[in-house]
Amino acid sequence: MDRDALLLWVKTYLPFPSQQSDISLCALAGDAGFRHYFRVNSSPSVIAVIAPPEREDNSAFVHKGLALAAGGVHVPRVYAVDYQLGYMLQEDLGDKLYLNALRVNTAAALYSAAEDALLAMQRMQPPAGLFGDYDSAELYREMGLFPRWFVGELLGISPTAEEQRNLDTLFAILIDNALQQPQVVVHRDFHGRNLLVLEEGGVGVVDYQDAVVGAITYDLVSLLKDCYIRWPPAMVRQRALHYRDRLVAAGSMTSVDDQTFLRWFDLMGLQRHIKVLGIFARLSLRDGKHRYLDDLPRVIGYVLEAADNYGPTREFSQWLRAKLLPVAQGQPWYRAVESVAD
Predict the structure, then answer these.
(1) pTM (2 d.p.)
(2) What is the pLDDT of residue 29?
């Protein structure tokens, strides 16, 4: 990573004259991807990005951002981009993350604003070919990270042939649940670390590079069953059903009963959280990002909670409790996790 070369490029392509004569870069905390972010001390400030072109599809990122902005979603404006170098200059939306702002007394207003952004995104008519399909192959590939990285590599357990067949049966149920839902633009990581409270009001949305067309409950469950903060199940259900009503009122889907929508929501969350267990284990073991282990207990809780509630998934829940949970509870990262409002 050539920081000096990036600084020279930034000075060349700043979108407005800066009152700051000594332009510099301040590294920002990264996420689980390959992008590196820097705040530029210009006035106003902007964000410089290094997104290695061999790792990131920067053209798709830019065009997805344009499509989302046209749909009424506040994503960072891209001022300049060099596709060959993988450099970008973006609007600075600040650093007030939802995750840090969410409290019992702020949750209602913040989630309402996030749901406004989500509704705008789900009402979009995406340009043909820009957002790929969140299809059965991709859904299965994601869940395959669970037996490999979480079960095998992290816990040291090798599933038997019968257990793997049972997992495949579960995965088929979860894939069918995703595909039977209305299909909309899906951010794919719509949670408190990728949403920003804007100074002028509203919500900023970042890290949308993996957006696809998929199940209408996927982003909703990412938001309300956030891997980094947990709310009481009754509150989550209430907000999920309220959002269902907003979708129907907006004409984004036909009316479905509470039981159907909550099943869509819960099983979509089960697919996501099974995947996340594999991803967080891989981030620790392969990439050395061990802080993600601290969030595994919360995700395990989501998995058990959802799988317990439905007959076709209960066998998986029983297997996880009997075989995996005792080993997980012996790990240094394991702890009991309670809801914020408990």
Answers:
(1) 0.95
(2) 79
The rounded distance, in Å, linking the Cα atoms of 85 and 127 is: 26
Q: Is-contact 217 268, C-beta < 8 A?
A: yes
- Beta carbons of 99 and 231 less than 8 angstroms apart: no
207: left (phi over 0), alpha (psi -120 to 50) or beta: left
Q: What is the pLDDT of residue 44?
A: 87
Q: Which residues pair with 40 in a beta bridge?
A: 25, 46
Cβ distance 225 to 275 under 8 Å? no
Whole-number Å distance between alpha carbons of 62 and 254:
32
- Give the integer Cα–Cα distance in Å for 180 and 168: 18
Per-residue pLDDT at 342: 66
pLDDT of 200-226, one tens digit each?
889 999 999 999 999 999 999 999 999
CA distance 9 to 64: 24
